[in-house]
Amino acid sequence: MHKIKKDFLWGASTSAYQFEGAWDTDGKGKSVQDIKKSFPEGVTDFKVSSDHYNHWKEDVALMAELGLKAYRFSIAWTRIIPNGVGEVNEKGIEFYSNLIDELLKYNITPIITMYHFDLPEELEKIGGWTNRKCIDAFENYAKVLLENFGDRVEYWLTINEQNMMSLVPEAILGKEKAEQISLKELYQANHNMFLASAKATILCHKMTKAKIGPAPNITTIYPNSNSPEDYYAAINFSAFRNWFFLDLPVYGIYNKVALNILEKNNAMFDILPGDMEILKEGKPDFIGFNYYTTATVKMYEKKENNSSNQQSGAKMENFYIQTDNPNLSKTQFGWEVDPYGFKNTLIELNERYHLPVLLTENGIGAYDKLTDEGKIHDQYRIEYYQNHFKYMFEAIEEGVELFGYCPWSAFDLVSTHEGIKKRYGFIYVDRTDDDVKECKRYKKDSFDWYKKVIDSNGSDIA
Ligand code: BG6
């Protein structure tokens, strides 16, 4: 028997640009995702995505049928404030207001991410997050959200995967952006995002009774061997990838190991007088985090080369380089699968920060097949979740205060850089990278299985 509380938030996640489509409908402005120029061959853009904007009522009804207790989604900044600053788009407010009401009608708790990789184009034009004007713009945007939805939303997330935007900008923000920006600018942008997140947190506490937290991608880091050098590599990578992004919001201090890496790479950013006070004040109520896999590193060797995606390919000269873990299997898209590592990550988070934790993403991207009978037999997805739940329950048993689990994703949606063919949902969306068709929805086998898990509050995961 496990100790899952009665009000545990069994949920599922999506993000606006990957799910909504309607990229220029009803006054929406363009975001950096809408203006991305190069997509890998055979990979769709984000113009239609899963067309949730035109299916939202049907989608919420499906979520209710699935039995979701919570739905984590993001709001498109450019739907609310098309130019990033200035005029508010009433149509955008109306869309999310209706969505929130519809969710509440079915007792589904909305968990809203304020910003998930889709900075307004107009802000990108002035340098994006490297420009401190973005901090004020975000604070103002957060104010508009809290004014309009703060009465109905209990949980907010400020920024999704701030660490991945800094660590692998090419995967998340596109090749052009990554090529334009130096390491120092990247971490200046990161500092400015921390400030924006802290200001939104302060505002949320002033204006509402809601709870708010960040949503980085956090994972346990293994040394490749028991050599002291590899252990040093693991300490450095863990600090740079994980703790840098939580020590600051939670304790108001910059992680020294991470700063040392930046200093050695001539990438130390500017901190203005008053910044640290704001950062100390904006404390989260909980930690949201995304978990897909663990990472293994060894001491950096100069001759090596490596490509990048969110889960692998990290390297920092003289500190670490990421390597495969032979103990783990891989998904069809090459991501290592580590359910035991989920438990380790939860325990590490708990012991380091002593805050309630919300899992905001976890899941498996696969080439799902729609059969002629309209079925999707995704047994591999069921097994992936079964294995993760086993260790999640053990972590809770060992004292981790996990209050919700929102896997990625509720519905199929367009991956950050690998198109719609990389499917994550419990609900299949019938379109391909080349043909958007009608985006008809189909329940996968994992839908029935997850429904049973939720109905039994996690007692029946067979
Ligand atoms: C996280 C993001 O990086 O992982 C999501 O928050 C993303 O936006 C998810 O979709 C899975 O990654 P990918 O690259 O397979 O879409």
TrEMBL record:
Keyword Hydrolase: yes
Coiled coil stretches, renumbered: none
Pfam families in the record: Glyco_hydro_1 (PF00232)
A molecular function GO annotation: beta-glucosidase activity
Active-site residues, as the UniProt record annotates them: 361
InterPro entries found in the cross-reference section: GH, GH_1_N_CS, Glyco_hydro_1, Glyco_hydro_1_AS
Record key words, sorted: Glycosidase, Hydrolase
GO CC annotation: cytosol
SUPFAM superfamilies: (Trans)glycosidases
Highest taxon of the lineage: Bacteria
GO annotation, biological process: carbohydrate catabolic process
Family, per entry: Belongs to the glycosyl hydrolase 1 family.
The protein, known as: 6-phospho-beta-glucosidase
Gene encoding the protein: bglA
